Amino acid sequence: MTSENFPSVRMRRLRKTPALRDLVRENTVTMSDLILPIFVEEDIDAPLPISSMPGVVRIPEKDLAAEIKAIQADGVKAVMMFGVSHHKDATGSDSWKSDGLLSRMIKRAKDAAPDMVVMADTCFCEYTDHGHCGVVDHGHVDNDATLENLAMQAVCSARAGADVIAPSAMMDGQIAVLRQGLDEAGFTDTPIMAYSSKFASAFYGPFRAAAGCELKGDRKTYQMDPFNGREALRESLLDESEGADFLMVKPGLPYLDVLARVREHTLLPLAVYQVSGEYAMIKFAAAAGALDEKRVVRETLGAFKRAGADLILSYFARDIGREGF
Ligand code: PBG
Prior knowledge:
The chain is an alpha/beta fold. It has helices at 18-24, 64-73, 101-112, 143-160, 174-184, 205-210, 230-242, 256-265, 276-287, 293-307, 317-323, and strands spanning 34-41, 48-49, 57-60, 78-84, 117-122, 135-137, 140-142, 164-167, 197-198, 247-250, 270-274, 311-314. The strands form two sheets. Strands 1, 2, 3, 4, 5, 8, 9, 10, 11 and 12 form a ten-stranded mixed β-sheet that branches. Strands 6-7 form a two-stranded antiparallel ribbon.
């Protein structure tokens, strides 16, 4: 468009009134698009606030049934569950025990709110004593040994009633192995949401305190280099070919370009994760009086939609449910 179009073309004509602006708005966000991540801790008496994530708590396992009902009453339709384990070991074996925390929390959530879509984050960092997302062998995370354990964990989650299995370990081949494991155990209809392009991001900092999974070192041998974009497409297409039912980009706001590119290359439902550090940035900036929290939150969610996300994981999901968009 060149300046010779003016004055016949006036972009401001469609911005004149709220009703007109609504008519031409290209994207919307509803509660059906949002997934609330929650943390559940065993053997604690009272909710434990996470200081780096103001407003977020670890929910005591014993309160989970009541809390999930309250979350549902606020309008949330889907949750991603993270366990805070007191039974960690070298392999994270508590996560594939039928009486382990992961299994118990999924059962409790589904029993309390059968209509809630319960997603199980499928990974080991919350259940291993070293904090890595798999089996460590001579200081290195062993991909193939971890795959077997991931399959056991996924089947355990499905048995407990999880509606969606969401592998976030970034092991090669994990989607194919989980699909096969789930199918062999009879869970042919349990979908897999792949954390397909998950970056080794400093934006996960507050999560590690929230989920109690600090580690020495980093996850750079399995999570992606934040400077890479093409590689995210390869990861996404591989996960699709291995049988993923959803793809995901994580973190969100610093990776909108990745989201838009993956959108152009897949027809699968695409999720984005507005991670703990993104949440913390908004919360602390708002607390300092620098940003209008409500407006900024809505703007970020709209940006995810604009970039191509169908689904958004956000710690703000419950607030949106309470306050409306
Ligand atoms: C663990 C997992 C992480 C997050 C979701 N699943 C942490 C990590 O990979 O280090 C981060 C979520 C957030 O920061 O909000 N598998």
